[in-house]
Amino acid sequence: MLILGIDPGIAQTGWGVVNVTGQRYQPVAFGVIKTTTKNTMEQRIHHIANAIGEVAQKHQVEIVSMEDIFFAKNVSSAITVAKVIGAIIQQLSLQKLTVRLFTPLQIKLSVTGYGTAEKHQVQELVRLLLKLDTIPKPDHVADSLAAAICLATNGATENRLRI
C-alpha cells in the first residue's frame, strides 16, 4: 500500500511516500514544499494544496496520513495551519483519496511506542524503520514519514481487531 504522509505548515510542508507491505516499510520519495512571505497567505495555501495533489498523483498513493493540530501555544499560527490542512483535504478529496488525521501524540506513540517521545527519538526510529542512512531533513520531512508509518501501524491494528 502506498501511503502519503504529510506534516502541514505554511512555510514548509513536509511530505513522504512510503510503500507498506505487511510490516515492512520502504521509502518511495519525500521532500518539502516551501512557500515565501512574498506571496499572500491565500497564494501560499493554494500552492501547498496543489503541490501535495501533484505528489499524490505522481506516486499514485492509495491513502493519506496527516498530522493534525493537537495543541497550539500560538493561536494565529494554529489557525493558519488549520487552513493549510483544510485546503489539502479538499485537494485530495477531489482525487477521491481518504485522509486520516493523527495528533502528534498518536504519531509518536505509533512510531516509538511512547507518546511523549522526543523529536530526535521519533526521527531516529523513522530512519531505522525506513533503513535510511541519515535522518531526513528538514524536520518536516521526517515528521511526514512518521505520519505515514503511524497510519500503517494503526491500519494493521484496526485490521487485526476486525478479525
Give a verbal description of the structure.
The chain has 163 residues and is of the alpha/beta class. It has one domain (2-162): Ribonuclease H-like superfamily/Ribonuclease H (Nucleotidyltransferase, domain 5). The protein is 51% helix and 23% strand. The protein has five helices and five strands; from the N terminus they run E-E-E-H-E-H-E-H-H-H. The protein has helices at 41-59, 75-94, 104-112, 119-129, 139-162; strands spanning 2-7, 12-21, 24-34, 63-67, 98-102. It has a five-stranded mixed beta sheet. It starts with a strand and ends with a helix.
Low-pLDDT stretches are none
Rg for CA atoms: 15 Å
Overall number of domains: 1
Mean pLDDT: 92
- Elements, N to C (H/E): EEEHEHEHHH
> Judging from the principal axes of the Cα atoms, what is the shape?
globular
Distance from first to last alpha carbon? 20 Å
Bin the helical content.
40-55%
CATH-level-2 architecture: 2-Layer Sandwich
Count, helices: 5
Q: How much of the residues is beta strand, in percent? A: 15-25%
Strands of the biggest beta sheet: in what spatial order? 3-2-1-4-5
Highest-level CATH class: Alpha Beta
User: What is the strand tally?
Assistant: 5
The CATH superfamily is Ribonuclease H-like superfamily/Ribonuclease H
Class derived from helix and strand content: alpha/beta
Biggest beta-sheet profile: 5 strands, mixed
CATH fold type:
Nucleotidyltransferase, domain 5
Describe the secondary-structure layout.
Elements: E1 2-7, E2 12-21, E3 24-34, H1 41-59, E4 63-67, H2 75-94, E5 98-102, H3 104-112, H4 119-129, H5 139-162
Parallel strand pairs: 1-4, 4-5
Antiparallel strand pairs: 1-2, 2-3
